[in-house]
Amino acid sequence: MPRPTLSVIGLGYLGATHAICMADLGYDVIGLDVDAGKVEALANGTVPFFEPGLDELLAKVLPTGRLTFTTSYDDIAEAADVHFLCVGTPQRKGENAADISYVDAAVESLATRLRRPCTVVGKSTVPVGTAERVAEQFAHNEVELVWNPEFLREGWAIEDTLHPDRLVFGVTSERGEQTMRAVFAPIIDTGVPVVVTDLATAQLVKVAANAFLATKISFINAMAEVCEVVHADVKKLSEALSYDERIGGRFLHAGLGFGGGCLPKDIRAFMARAGELGVDQALTFLTEVDAINQRRRARMVDLTRELLDDSLSGRRIGVLGAAFKPHSDDIRDSPALDVASRLHRAGAHVTVYDPAALANARRDYPALAYAESAVDAAAGADAVLHLTEWPEFVQMDPEVLGAVVNRRNVVDGRNALDATRWRAAGWHYRALGRP
Ligand SMILES: NC(=O)c1ccc[n+]([C@@H]2O[C@H](COP(=O)([O-])OP(=O)(O)OC[C@H]3O[C@@H](n4cnc5c(N)ncnc54)[C@H](O)[C@@H]3O)[C@@H](O)[C@H]2O)c1
Questions:
Q1: Contact 406, 425 (CB under 8 A)
Q2: What would you measure as the largest C-alpha separation in the chain, in angstroms?
Q3: Nearest protein Cα to ligand 1, atom 21
Q4: Is the CB of residue 102 below 6 angstroms from any atom belonging to ligand 1?
Q5: Catalytic residue of the set 21, 118, 227, 262
C-alpha cells in the first residue's frame, strides 16, 4: 500500500502534536484549524502552546516539506487519504455534558466536501455513541470511520504519541483495521500493543481510563482528609500502599488534586452520558470523586487562612504555579489558579509565578498579580503556596526564598517539597494530609 497522505483537523495540544509526530514518521501531513492565527504560527515554525521538544520537532520536519497547514477544508478533502479528527470537546457551559458542536462542525465541513474514498479517524474524547452518529454523516460517501482514542499526557506528548502504552482501534470493518495498522505501522513495529474493537468500546476506553485515574487521585485525597483529623501522614500512607503491586504508586500522591482540559470534564461528561443511557447509578461514585477533588481546593484556602491567624484580608500571598500541571502551559481548570482566585476574592494580595503559563494566566485571570520569578512572587509574602509541581520549585533553596518573604510560611499543595529542609530553614511548613 503506498504511504497515505494524512490530514489532522484541529491543531490544539492533541492535533498539533499528532500532525508534527506523523510528519516526523515520514508521512505527508496537512494540518487544518479554523483558527487562522494558529495555522500561521505553525506554518512559521512556532508551536502556539508550550510542550517540551515540540518546537524543535516542528523545526526539524518543516524543511522536509512533508508538513503543511491550511484553513481550507477543500484542501484536505482533495489531498488526504486519512483524516484525523482532533477538535476540542470541552464541558458545556453550566452542564456536565460535553460540547460536541466542534466535532459536528468539523464533520459537516468535511463530509460535504469529500469526493474520494478515504478513512476518517476520530481521536477527540467523545460521549459514547458519538462515533456511530458521525458514521451516519459519512454513510453516503465511500468513507470508513474508525475511532482511535488518544491517551497522550501534556508534558510528555511526543513520547506518548510515538511510544504509546497501547493503540486502540474502534472499527466496523476489516478494511478499517488494515488502514489503521498500515498508518501506525512505524509505531506498531516497535512492539506497541494494539487493541482492535468496536466503536462503542473504543470511545469508552478513553473515558474509563480517565475515570479510573481520577478515582485513584481522589481516593488518596480522601485518605488525606482522614489523615488530617488523626494527625497521620498521608505521604507515608501512600508510600506504604505503593509497595503493594496490586495497588501501585502512580497517581497515588495526595495533594491539590487534578485539573486540566481532560480529567474533570471527561468524568463529568461520562456521568452525563450514563444518565442519558439510563445507567447513571453505575457512575454515581464519580460525583464523589469530583467532590473530593473540589474539596482539596477549598481545604488549601482554609489551611492558608489558618496559617495566617484566621485572616486572609490584606495578606500577601506568593503562589508558585499556574499551569494545571508541570511541563505544560495549559491552565484549563487549573487547581493552582482556582486557589489563587479564591484567595484573591477573600481579600488577599496574590502574586503568581509559573515557568510556562504566565501569558495564559494573565489573559484569563487579569485580576491577579504576576511576577517573573519565584523570588519576585514571594517578595514580602506572608505565605508562599506551592501549587504546581515544577522541578524548579521542588529544587528551590528555602534560604533564598526565605530572604525575601515577610513571614516564613509555606503551604505545599503538592506534597513535594522536602519538609525537613524547609523546617530546618525556619519555615512553618504545612501540607495537605500531613501533620
Ligand atoms: N490535551 C490533551 O492532553 C488531550 C489528551 C487526550 C485527548 N484529548 C482530547 O483531544 C481533543 C482535543 O483536545 P485539545 O486539548 O487538543 O483541545 P484544544 O482546545 O487545545 O484544541 C482544539 C482545536 O480544535 C480547533 N477547532 C475547533 N473547531 C474546529 C473545526 N470545526 N475545524 C477545525 N478545527 C477546529 C480549535 O481551534 C483548536 O485549535 C479533546 O476531545 C480532548 O479531550 C486531549
A1: no
A2: 71
A3: 12
A4: yes
A5: 262
Is there a common fold for 6-197 and 211-431? yes
Any idea where the domains of the chain sit in the sequence? 6-197, 211-431
List phi, psi (to 5°) of 390.
-75, 140
Atom of ligand 1 nearest to the CA of 154: 3
Ligand 1 site, residue 238, Cβ cutoff 6 A: no
86 is catalytic: no
- pLDDT in 10s for each residue of the chain, 435 residues: 678 999 999 999 999 999 999 999 999 999 999 999 999 999 999 999 999 999 999 999 999 999 999 999 999 999 999 999 999 999 999 999 999 999 999 999 999 999 999 999 999 999 999 999 999 999 877 999 999 999 999 999 999 999 999 999 999 999 999 999 999 999 999 999 999 999 999 999 999 999 999 999 999 999 999 999 999 999 999 999 999 999 999 999 999 999 999 999 999 999 999 999 999 999 999 999 999 999 999 999 999 999 999 999 999 999 999 999 999 999 999 999 999 999 999 999 999 999 999 999 999 999 999 999 999 999 999 999 999 999 999 999 999 999 999 999 999 999 999 999 999 999 999 999 999
Q: Are strands 349-353 and 369-370 parallel, antiparallel or unpaired?
A: parallel
- Counting beta carbons within 10 angstroms of the beta carbon of residue 203, is it exposed (0 to 12), middle (13 to 18) or buried (19 or more)? buried
- 19 ligand 1 Cβ < 6 A: no
267 close to ligand 1 (CB < 6 Angstrom): no
C-alpha 102 to ligand 1 mean position (Å): 9
Q: What is the dihedral of CA 70, 118, 126, 48, to 10 degrees?
A: -20
d(CA 178, CA 172): 11
Please say whether the structural domain 6-197 has been given the CATH code 3.40.50.720.
Answer: yes
* 38 CA: nearest ligand 1 atom: 39
Smallest Cα–Cα separation from 120: which of 74, 70, 167, 76? Answer: 76
Q: What is the pTM of this model?
A: 0.96
Interval between CA 124 and ligand 1 midpoint (Å):
7
The response to whether residue 86 sits with its C-beta less than 6 Å from ligand 1 reads: yes
For 211-431, CATH gives 3.40.50.720
Ligand 1 lined by 335 (C-beta under 6 Å):
no
Q: How far is the CA of 33 from the centre of ligand 1 (A)?
A: 10
